[in-house]
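Lecture 7 notes: from sequence to structure.

We start with a single chain of 234 residues. Read the sequence below before looking at the structure.
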Amino acid sequence: MIVMKVSTPLLTLLFILFPTASGFLQKVENFGKPLQLKMSLKPAAIPLMDSGKALARSGELIIDLTSSLNLYGGGLSAAGAQIRNSGDCVAQAAASCRFKTAAELVCDELREGATCLLEATDKLKLAIDEAYTDDNPALATAMDSLGKAGNDLEAAGACIMLRTGSPEVGVKLGECGRALEEISKQLLYLAPEQVESKESSQRMAYAAQQMVEAANELQRLKKPTPKGKGWLKQ
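Now the structure, written as tokens:
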């Protein structure tokens, strides 16, 4: 790649003769530079890390559940694996949030996590076909919420890529967290007699809670002040 340095007088002459040249030269100057934001994603790092870890653990527990139900290798097991992979991506994105120059990594990891959630949705479709013989309609509702969570996480990554600002990223993360909360409710009824189902639901609920917390940090929403002796519980 050949880089040419242009003297200041020549640049001034170019701007006079060609007023639109400044925009072109600015694009050339910014070409190849890493994605940098005028906003900070660092406030979301800790809760987003906790959310990713909890999401990955929830997926692992779904895999364990299929083993207990003698369904290992089916659609539900594959969906659990994709949920685990998504959690790993979210945790990696959280680790990169600490650095101002790592916005591109955060964007890529969030969108990869979204892809995993959407692939998990496809696997749940297969699991639904398998589960209908056992009369378990909870998977259908979980599938819809999982698809929404994937789309919202993808939108959060897109907001970073488009440099729309941290509040907009926070809005999408908040919507993703609320979709994860709906999934946690369905996981509880997936196999009520199995402890893995309950634990997976709890981990998913915690992932949702921390995702919303990360969203609130990016939107700079103040936490409600505890009343009375409520501060003792913190």
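The chain has a mean pLDDT of 80. Keep this in mind for problem set 3.
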